[in-house]
Specification:
The chain has about 150 residues and is mostly helical. The protein is built from 6 helices and 3 strands.
Length: about 150
Amino acid sequence: MSVQDALKIYRNENLAIEAFKKYRLQKGITCKKCGHTDHYWLASKHQFQCKMCRFRTTLQSGTLLEGSKLPIWYFFTALHLLKDQTNLSISEFQRHTEHKYSEPLYDFLRRIRVHLSLSERNALLITFLEIASMAGHKRVDVHDNF
């Protein structure tokens, strides 16, 4: 799979949400209100809800994406580009995302570089590609990308 083909798949926000949701569930979600760890997904709200106290937690809450207003697909695009280029420039990332301003992208890339290990980045990409494959996108071979 070429870089351009991969980047086209990563632009799907629904797949990005599903992949990030799966990653969050694998890591575990703890309720900020009661500390309970059993949650279910409220599809209509795009949030997790605690089974004990019904407190809602957004998909990005408690992660390095917390507070970001950028689409989640930017996250997977950045992970893919950082896989091949550890010195990814802001202008190149901006070119791939077609984002108008560079300032939010700078903080976004900095957070990813600082807070995610290489193995976590690869695990997230594999999760995304597995979900894309299940969703029926043209055959995505997870191991071609690693």
